[in-house]
Amino acid sequence: MRGRTATGIMTIGLLLGLALQPAWADEGYGHTMGYGRGHGEYGRGIHATMHHGGTGHYLRHLLKHQKEIGLTEEQVTRLKALSLDLDRTRIKTEAEIQIAERELASLVHDEKADLTAIEAKVTQSESLEAGLRIEAIKATREARALLTPEQRDKEKAEHEKMMDRHRSGAGRGEG
Length: 175
What we know:
This protein is mainly α. It has one domain. Helix content is 77%, strand content 2%. It has 6 helices and 2 strands, in the order αββααααα. Strands 1-2 form a two-stranded antiparallel ribbon. α2 packs antiparallel against α4 and α4 packs antiparallel against α5. The chain is elongated. The chain starts with a helix and ends in a 7-residue tail after the last helix.
């Protein structure tokens, strides 16, 4: 009995989320929106993608400040390859997530659709998202492993400078 109640509550929550979905559809910033989660550079519901989006920012930060950090040509080449590989993975996986989310929407709107199929589609989407997060974590770790301790210190200093500029408004064109 409890299982049915919990399933009913989850279904109601999912349906409420779907009812609100049109409000999320145009949320944007170039992101594709799913059911309650944003899929794109900044945020799987501001959760997961922030992690791999953050990895992309970290890699771009390293490349932008390569001279200040003292990166070698070999390190720059490897960081560019990491960035490209992560972008490829992100683009492909986000497309798969979009497809899964659209298939989910179709299932949810079909009153005859089996709840097991709906649950499987949700699980598929979440699994793709989790895999993408893991790939981003791997890329970040690989990038950090390329740096010497001295370069890590320089990177932190460059990051702090950037954050100070951002906090002072210079990062927004105000300063």
